[in-house]
Amino acid sequence: MTVQYTDKPIPRPALWGIIYRSSGSLWEGVKEEKFLIQKCKDCGKILHPPRPMCPACHSTEQEYVEASGKGKIYSYVTYNKSPHKAFKAPYSVILVELDEGPRVISNTVDVKPEEIEIGMPVEIAYEKIDDELTLYKFKKAG
Amino acid sequence: MGRNILEEYMNRKYDADIKPSPQANLIKDKTAIVGIGETEYSKNSGRDELDMACEAIKNAADDAGIKVEDIDGLETFTLDRTAMPFIVSTLGLKNLRFASEVSFGGGAACAVTLHAAAAVATGVAKNVVCYRALNEASGHRFGRGDGYAKYMISAPTPHYGYTFPMGFCTPLSWAGCWGRRWMHEFNVTYEQIGWWAVVLREYANKNPRAIFHDKPMTHEDYMNVQMIVEPLRLFDCCVDTDGAAAHIVTSAERAKDLKQKPVYILGAGQSAPIEQEIQTIYNRPVISGLFETWYAAHEAYRVAGVEGKDIDVAELYDPYSLGGIMSLEECDFCERGDAGNFIEGGDNIRVDGKMPTNTNGGLLSEAYIHGYNLVNEGVRQLRGQSYNQVKDPELCMVTAGPGVPSSAMVLRN
Ligand SMILES: [Zn+2]
C-alpha cells in the first residue's frame, strides 16, 4: 500500500518557510525525478543530509551525484494511529540505506506494512503531489 | 581529526585526551542541590504554567529552607512557556543576576542543573532555581505531529524537511525507527521491552505523586494494549502531564547550613557527538544505540571519577520505554545489546535489584515533567526520602533526553 492523504495540507519541506540553500538542490532534483546526493568537491566526502560546509575539511564547495535509487530497508515503523491530520493511518515509514551509503526516510509504494522487512531490496519511485512538490518513495526492487 | 567517534563508542572507550582535567572542574563537589519542589501532577491542571512554576519554585525554596527572595538565578528550557519576567515579578525576586534557557527539549534535563551549577561555582549567582512547567496533557501537546513544529522547535531545523512530508513527524516514531533497528540487531523481543513499563508502574503504584498511582498494570496488560507506532505500544509512551517541578542549586559551602541533607553534583556533562539532529539521526554508522546518552554519561563519570558499576540508583530519561531501556547500556549498567535480557522479568531494575531504575515510576508512570521529576527523585533517593527507597545509596545517575543533544549527571550524598 501507499500512504493515503486526507484533504488537509501535507507538511512541506520548507516546514518553517525556509529551504536552506544546501537542501534546495535535493528538492529541485526530485522534481525532475533525480535523487541527488551532495558530495564535498574538495575531499569527496558524501554529505547527507546536505549541508553548507564539509565537516571533514571545511570546504564550502559541493557537487551533486545522481543516486542509483536502489537500496535496502534499514529500519521502519508503522503508525496505527495517525499522528498528523494530513495522513491516514495505518501507514509505514521506512529508513532506506541507499547503495551509495546515505540513509533516507521515506514511505513504501505498493507494499503492505506486514510485508516490510529489514533488508528488503527497494528502488526509488516518485510521487508528484502538485507542481511545487514531488516526493521520493520506494517500491520493491523488481 | 584523528579521533574516530564510532570506534570510541563501539569499544566503550571514552577518550579523555582532549578534555579539561576533573581537578579543574569547579562544579565537582563544590555545588549541591539543596531544595526540590513540585506541584500536583495531573491530567488537567486548570491552571496556567506561570502559576504552577511559581508554586514549584516556592516549594523548592521552602524545602531548602531559603527565602524565595534569595533566589538570584533562573534556569529553564527554551521550550518552557512561562515568561521569566513574570516569574521574577510574581515571586518578588529582587536580586536576579543570572538567567538562561537550555535548548534541545528533554536533552536539557540535566544541562539546566549543570548551567545553574556553573553560575554558582563561578560566583555569578548564589542560589539558582531550575524549573519547568507544562500543560502537556491539557494544553499544547507537542507529542503529536501537528503540534510538534509549532511548540517543540525553537529554531527552523532543515532535517525535518526530509521527514515531515513522509508523515514521519512524532518523537515516538523517530525513536521507534532506531529502536526497531536495535531490537533487530540484538534479537530483543516485545516481551522483554514490556518489563520496563511493568516495573515502572509498580514503582508508581507506591508513589502517591504518580499519575498512575492507582492503576496497576501486568505484563499481560502490556502485551494486550494497542500499538501506537510499531514497535511501540501505548504503555511504552510517557504519560502526558500537567504540572511543574523545580530544584535549587547552591554552593556546597552554603548547603551545609540549610534544612536538608545536601546532594552534591559530582560530575555533569552535555553532549552532541556527530551527525547531530533532533531525534532523526539515521546517518551515523550505527543507529542501534544512544550516542548522546553514552557521551553525556561518560563525561559525567569522567568528571566524577566513577564508573557505571559504582552507581547505586539510576533515574534514566524515558520519554518512551526504549529511551530508558537503551540508556541502561549507555550508562554501562549492562553490555551493549544486552538491555533486553537485563530487564527481562524486571528484577534487575526493581528496588533491590542490580540497578534500581526510575524509582518514582519514571516519565512513563509518575509524570512527564520533561525529566525534572527524575532529578527530584534522584535527590530524594540520596536523602533517603523516596517512596521506593533503595538501601543507603551513595551515587545516583540521572540522564536526559535521548537522540537529541543531551546531558547527564552523577549526584552523591
Ligand atoms: Zn570535504
The biggest sheet of chain B, with number of strands, parallel, antiparallel or mixed sense and barrel status, is: 9 strands, mixed
Relative helix content of chain A: under 10%
Can you count the beta strands of chain B?
A: 11
What's the N-to-C terminus distance of chain B?
A: 39 Å
Gyration radius over CA of chain A: 16 Å
What is the topology, as strand order, of the major beta sheet of chain A? 8-7-5-9-10
Write the layout of secondary structure elements.
The complex is a heterodimer of chains A (142) and B (413).
Chain A: E1 4-5, H1 21-31, E2 36-40, E3 46-47, E4 62-66, E5 70-79, E6 87-88, E7 91-98, E8 103-106, E9 121-128, E10 134-140
Antiparallel strand pairs in A: 1-6, 2-3, 2-4, 5-7, 5-9, 7-8, 9-10
Chain B: H1 5-10, E1 31-38, H2 49-64, E2 73-77, H3 84-91, E3 98-102, H4 111-121, E4 128-135, H5 145-151, H6 171-186, H7 190-205, H8 219-224, E5 227-230, E6 232-233, E7 242-251, H9 252-255, E8 263-271, H10 291-304, E9 313-315, H11 321-330, H12 339-343, H13 362-365, H14 372-383, E10 395-399, E11 406-412
Parallel strand pairs in B: 2-3, 2-4, 9-10
Antiparallel strand pairs in B: 1-7, 1-8, 4-7, 5-6, 8-11, 10-11
Zinc ion binds at residues 40, 42-43, 45, 54, 56-57, 59 of chain A.
Overview of this structure, please?
The complex is a heterodimer of chains A (142) and B (413). Chain A has one helix at residues 21-31, and strands at residues 4-5, 36-40, 46-47, 62-66, 70-79, 87-88, 91-98, 103-106, 121-128, 134-140. By secondary structure, chain A is mainly β. Chain A folds into two domains: 14-66, no CATH class; 68-142, OB fold (Dihydrolipoamide Acetyltransferase, E2P) (Beta Barrel), CATH 2.40.50. In chain A, the strands form three sheets. Chain A has a five-stranded antiparallel beta sheet. Chain A has a three-stranded antiparallel beta sheet with strand order 3-2-4, covered by helices on one side. A two-stranded antiparallel sheet of chain A has the order 1-6. In chain A, strand 7 and strand 8 form a beta hairpin. The mean pLDDT of chain B is 94. Chain B is an alpha/beta fold and 413 residues long. The interface between A and B is large, with 46 and 41 residues. Strand 5 (70-79) of chain A pairs antiparallel with strand 5 of chain B, so a sheet runs across the interface. Zinc ion binds at residues 40, 42-43, 45, 54, 56-57, 59 of chain A. Zinc ion (ZN) binds next to loops of chain A.
